[in-house]
Design goal:
GO terms for molecular function: double-stranded RNA binding. Pfam families: Sua5_yciO_yrdC. By secondary structure, the chain is of the alpha/beta class. The protein has helices spanning about 15-25, 45-55, 75-80, 85-95, 125-135, 160-165, and strands at about 5, 30, 40-45, 65-70, 100-105, 120, 140-145, 170-175, 185, 195. The radius of gyration is 16 Å and the shape is globular.
């Protein structure tokens, strides 16, 4: 059964954050708060954990479209091809924020993502998520969690999330109520930016 821990976003407790990092380093899956909906995540470099998330989502790992959650933009060049100054200025202006940007991946992608031409990059405006990534030392792979009913309603109450997910993940972080609107997804991998999904982030940013 999963651990359930409370972390406050205004002042995330280092000791609690380190417990989360330990779970990730040991190949565990976590559910954690972001600036949009709660996310399901694992260490980007742990194949077994990645396969678990792909199974939960019902997709093959090589076909899965997971986002890379980063703590800031400084590691961007580790995973994406060189971006021009206009794109970088745009990212700097709206991140951290409720966006996922799809960009061309480079040759340094972790082994499980080598075949991917593009990668979704996310820097959430949530201190808990960013501190976890900082302490882990590399991004976490992430996907949103939602209810399986006709209308996709993202679960916002951490206690209800725990009830539902306690036997499928290793840790659920209670960071307060989540949002029920996902991030806005913008494809920057082509010549022109393309909005793939309108979510919480304004599309009026260009």
């Amino acid at each position: 059964m999963a651990q359930f821990i409370k972390i406050y976003e205004e002042n995330p407790n280092e000791k609690e954050l380190n417990k989360v990092v330990e779970v990730l380093q040991n190949g565990g899956l976590i559910i954690y708060p972001t600036d949009t909906v709660y996310g399901l995540g694992c260490d980007i470099s742990n194949t077994k954990a990645l396969e678990k998330i792909a199974r939960i989502k019902g997709v093959k790992l090589e076909k899965a479209n997971f986002s890379f959650v980063c703590s800031d933009l400084k590691n961007l060049s580790d995973y994406v091809k060189q971006i021009d100054s206009t794109t970088f200025k745009l990212l700097k202006r709206v991140l951290p924020g409720p966006y996922t940007f799809v960009m061309q991946g480079n040759n340094n992608l972790p082994k499980d993502f080598k075949k991917k031409k593009t990668v979704g990059i996310r820097v959430p405006d949530n201190l808990i998520a960013r501190r976890i990534v900082e302490l882990l030392g590399n991004p976490i792979v992430s996907t949103s969690i939602y209810d399986e009913d006709d209308v996709i309603e993202y679960t916002t109450d951490p206690e209800l999330i725990f009830e539902k997910w306690q036997n499928r993940v290793d840790m659920v972080i209670d960071g307060g109520y989540g949002d029920n609107v996902a991030s806005t997804v913008i494809d920057l991998s082509g010549d022109e930016p393309k909005v793939l999904r309108e979510g919480k982030g304004s599309t009026d940013i260009f």
